[in-house]
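Protocol step 4 of 6: structure prediction from sequence.
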Amino acid sequence: MFIIRFLLLSLLICLSVVSLSHAQAQAPATSTAEPPKVAELLRLLEDADVKTWLAQRQAAVPEKGAAEVARVIDDLEARSRTRLNVLLSAVPRVGSELYRAASSVRQEAHDSGFAPGILMIGIIAGIGFGTEWFLRRSVPAVTLPNQLLSQMQTEFAPLLIFTATVAFVFLIFPWPPLMRVVVLYSLVATVAYRSVLALCRLAMTVSVPMAKAYPRVRLFVAVLTAAMAFSAICERLAVAEDVCSLITIGFSGLLLLIAIEAIGRNRSSDDAQLLGQRVPRTTGIAGAVTLWLLWCGGFLALFWLGIMFVVVPRVLSIADKLTHAFAASRWNDGDAADPKTVLLVRGARAIIIIIAVDWIAFVWRHNFQPITGQLALAKTIITGAFNSVVILLVIDLVWQLGNAYIARQLGRVGDGRALTPNEIARQGRLRTLLPVFRNALAAGLLSVAALTVLSQMGVQIGPLIAGAGVVGVAIGFGSQTLVKDIVSGVFYLLDDAFRVGEYIEAGSYTGTVESFSLRSVRLRHHRGPIFTVPFGSLGAIKNLSRDWSVDKFRIRVPFKTDLDKVRKLIKAIGGELQADPELGSSFIEPLKLKGVEQIGEYGIELGVGFTCKPGDQTAIRRKAYTMLMQVFGDNGIDFAQPVVQVSGDDKGSAAAAHATRQLQGTTAPPGPNGPAS
């Protein structure tokens, strides 16, 4: 996959170079101002000479563009051919140049009274290792709370002791110039070799493939550090530049063989996956050889681009595992949403990517300067792309930190702890406002990122900002209702009129607040329907979920009922409700008899009430009704009912019976002799 991505990237770069060259070649034709006389002849006389001149001018544009593209290709070919000839001509002089440099160092050491350079390097390194061994045996190790920190101490504490010792020993001697170069770079290579191996051993604690590939990684790092030290020493000792380049290529060939051997092993092996990035062996080997050819040909920009494509993903994976493990060991929970963990993980990723991008930009700027100097637009785009990566990483880090903080605060809301009413209110307000802040943060960062990237690409963002302002004003005038809804929503939130999870009434709408956007609120009715109500249509808000709720209801008992007995029974019911495991915690004031509310036509109306937490009054009232009916029935207390009672003496009863008979007689059907009397 790497070689495919690499070839596609190379093809895109080539196409970009050709298209940009052609565009720049056409620019003079379109921008060249024609002489006034020619314009006058075109418009009035249609002179044949003028037409011929214009045709020749237009025909010259493709030739100029093609010539510029061809010149770029010729420059690349000439650079490659020149570098190859220089390297081939340097082969016979490698031995003589190295012998001359070694003789100069040996003679300088002899004249200054120093031992040979190799012996001095061995002595200084031996002193460093001896000091490290002595301190390790005599000074007890500090006990650290977790394995990762202990591993870091084990790896880097001896390395620091060794580095400090060899630096001190090196600095106390007045070295001759040539010998100083040899000893200095050799010691720097030794410290670099040990540092990289320490990082690899630290990565082995979280990466199994790294543990199995460690022997080959160690050999690769040894050859690489030796090559870098030897190349630097040869350059400082005035070895010919072409000979230094040839020696460097020789070392790179050895590194290529090590990489091919690792990739060419079993495809499913862990170390092949580590070095080959899970690609087929043939593709991996072809990619390694291609990178080596780019290095040999002097195309350092493309070489380092390919190296970063291979190395950076694996380094990021190991860095993520190490930072997560460190966060889990340093902070007890190691929660991924913890802002400290996010800062550590994302910060490490950003630092690695920024270093890689800056290095590629540095190499690209110095290696492709002859080409990008001729293509100003290509140079602007490439530079803007490098700068945009850094900007996007910074914006991503800010977003991840803000999102992690908001997610952590939302996770703490409703965690089941015993909270005070003020804390419950605060959590409800956070649950309401934090999603809005998160959306606003995302929109703001996205806008800043887009404008900044366009600015880095050479786009003038001033007209874009001005145009956006004009469009915003036009939308504001044309969408007054929308603006009203948004502004009303802002003030509702500032006034803390309602929160997510609260039951409210607004005009003809009632329900529990489920969520809201910039212009509307979603209410879930207790029977299931959802109302989406614009803020501008809410009006006055009746919030039924704040602080407490007082619930009152009435019962009717006959006139002859013992009210003291009723009061005692209702008080006993209130005590039982407070002792209920489900409803007892909801009470603020118990159920009790408030007194006589009204003397009705057929009974006495008694007021009963209680105070509880908002939202629990319905369940408590239903339970109280059930218990009242049961307790009143057990104690012989009836609920008052409308009754019609007819009373009087016997004469009155007889008169009523006579009137009834008369009424029945008048409604009887007539007989054969007329109506009945």
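Step 5 (inspection) to follow. Strands lie at 503-506, 509-516, 520-524, 530-534, 542-543, 549-557, 587-599, 604-612.
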